[in-house]
Design goal:
Blueprint (H helix, E strand, L loop, with lengths): L1 H9 L6 H23 L2 H8 L3 H7 L3 H20 L9 H18 L1 H12 L11 H22 L8 H17 L1 H8 L5 H20 L10
Helix pairs in contact: 2-3, 2-5, 2-7, 5-8, 6-7, 6-8, 6-9, 6-11, 8-9, 9-11
Length: 224
Amino acid sequence: MGTMKAEASRTPRKRDAADTKRRILKAALNEFATHGFAGARVDRIAQEADVSKPMIYDYFGDKSAVYAAALREAYVKIREAEKKLSLDKLSPNDAVRELVRFTMNHYRRNPWFISLLTIENMRGGQTIRTMSDMPRVQSVLLEQVRNVLQRGKLSGDFCNEMDPRDFYIFVASLCYFPISNTHTLRAVFGVPIDNDWLNRRCDEASEMLLGYLKRDISAKPSDC
């Protein structure tokens, strides 16, 4: 009996491919966000993910391929989290507030997202342009935003019609800048960018966006 137990303990557990990929991508997100593309090292990713370098190459390919997978994962994570918002169950006004609040909090809680977007833009967007499935990844979000804007128009809450892509860019811009430029804003303007300050900016950003949606830009201010 003792021999059988000893042999069982030496039997390697079956590799969980999904879990292995998840750990590699998590490590890659941290590595590229911390060191940039040029400074990132696959051996550090392997060490953090507790896998071998050959395994990373087997699953994803070379360093550029790992970076591409990590960049895509950054977008997938935010889109997956947005699916849980249930904006269709909220009034159009509250749906806008919730979307802004979620976006701001995602940037705050996942600084690697800001870092990766900055890195990719510094590289001229050369990697993201090769991702043929990015429109599909983004489509869920755009459909949610489109529904909110349409419901607001039908209910009379919103006067101004807006392309969902343009609207989300406004949302992302208002939430992104205070997080991506925290250190320089503190140094240059002396603003106390802490949780309370960011919460106020989040509420104010929501009201700014709602104010725009409620104003009919084709009519006189008194008409709507």
